[in-house]
Amino acid sequence: MSHELRTPLNAIIGFSEVMLEGIGGTVNDKQKEFLKDIKGSGDHLLSLINDILDLSKIEAGKMELEPSEFNLKELIEGSLVMVKEKAFKHKIKVRAEVEDEIRSIVADERKIKQVAFNLLSNAMKFTPDGGSVFVRAKKAGEDCVEISVKDNGIGISPEDRKKLFQPFQQLETTLKKKHAGTGLGLNLCKKFVELHGGSIRVESEVGKGSKFIFVIPVKQ
């Protein structure tokens, strides 16, 4: 099923990119706008399919970790690069701080990168223009590391905090900046962190921002 869905979808995304670049011929501004909508919708649908596949693997007990040694600071810096354009566009200050004691850790790099990126993307989504996002990594005891993503956005009410890590739940707000989500991101974050034997939580106050914190062992 995943192959049958993703193969034609990748073709739609690929051909829309080719047409946007003008390889198939000149396109006018209105056509470019339509092509961007096609590509954006395709990317969103592909993201949803990938998230559902990951979730189904976890629930079937077939999701396995692929641990390797990697530099956590480089992973965090790489995640910041992925949101750099959006940060610049909305004048959001993004910075990171990683304690010198933290070097390499042993974990599933792809999954930790996905957790970090999801939390960063959410922070950007709910932070108003001119706001700030701060990522920090520090030691949490002898054998664990704590990574947090803090924003000074709109914050989350106690009632909404109960929904956060549930699948297909999204908070309704005008500050989504029209970036649709799958409603699975935080649920997958929770499951990926727990697969590592870690935990994730949120601290938030309406009007004063949110801070998502996850803790994982430094070795698997």
Strand order of the largest sheet: 2-4-5-7-6
Structural class: alpha+beta
Q: How much strand content do the residues show?
A: 15-25%
Topology order in helix (H) and strand (E) letters: HHEHHEEHEEHHEE
Give average pLDDT, whole number.
87
Largest sheet: number of strands, sense, barrel closure:
5 strands, mixed
- DSSP E strands, number: 7
Q: Enter the CATH topology name of the largest domain.
A: Heat Shock Protein 90
- Envelope shape: globular
Q: CATH class of the largest domain, please?
A: Alpha Beta
**Intertermini distance:** 32 Å
Overall number of structural domains: 2
Rg result: 19 Å
- Discrete helix count: 7
What proportion of the residues is helical, as a percent range? 40-55%
Unreliable spans = 173-180
CATH architecture of the largest domain: 2-Layer Sandwich
What do we call the CATH homologous superfamily of the largest domain? Histidine kinase-like ATPase, C-terminal domain
Task: Give a structural overview.
The protein is of the alpha+beta class and 220 residues long. The chain is built from seven helices and seven strands. Strands 2-4-5-7-6 form a five-stranded mixed sheet. Helix 1 runs antiparallel to helix 2, helix 3 packs across helix 5 and helix 5 packs antiparallel against helix 7. The longest helix has 31 residues. The radius of gyration is 19 Å and the shape is globular. The chain starts with a helix and ends with a strand. About 4% of the residues have low confidence.
